[in-house]
Amino acid sequence: MRHHKHRGEGRHHRGPGRRHRGHGRPPHGPRRPKHNVPVNILETETGFEARVFCIGFTKENVKINIVDDMLYISGTRTPVDEYPDFLLQEYPIKSFERWFQLSEKVDQQAVTAAFEDGVLVITAPKVAGAVRPEREITIE
User: What's the pTM value of the predicted model, to 2 decimals?
Assistant: First the structure.
């Protein structure tokens, strides 16, 4: 790869990963995304399990939909108290959104969800043809 030299007054190389003003992050800092809840996804022999860490939300605040092959998870709640200006905020106060492409292995009619101590656990079983049972082969 060749390094491209800029020509002209006031233009210079800013180094790897840096962008010119007007591109990338806004000058006032990063925007807080609406989809800022962490999710862990696990594939087992019989299906998939997603654990959505939505601390502070209840099952009445969370909505789960399957449209076509997409799983949509959103949560909205009205804060009861006035919240301070946080120095660092790593989980949502008012709302979140996440969405995932479902595999063709998922039985969409059998997807279930439950809340366990602020963690939304979504279980998506595999369709019968996608589950491969283990069997031992005897040697003759």
Answer: 0.65
User: Residues near 36 by Cβ (< 8 Å), separated by ≥ 6?
Assistant: 90, 91, 92, 96
Domain ranges for the chain, please list them.
Answer: 39-79+92-125
pLDDT in tens, 14-60: 444 444 444 444 444 444 455 578 999 999 989 999 999 988 888 99
C-alpha to C-alpha distance for 120 and 92, rounded to whole angstroms: 15
The full 3-state SS of the chain, as one line of letters, equals CCCCCCCCCCCCCCCCCCCCCCCCCCCCCCCCCCCCCCEEEEECCCEEEEEEECCCCCCCCEEEEEECCEEEEEEECCCCCCCCCCCCCCCCCCEEEEEEECCCCECHHHCEEEEECCEEEEEEEECHHHCCCCCCCCCC
Q: Does domain 39-79+92-125 have CATH number 1.10.10.10?
A: no
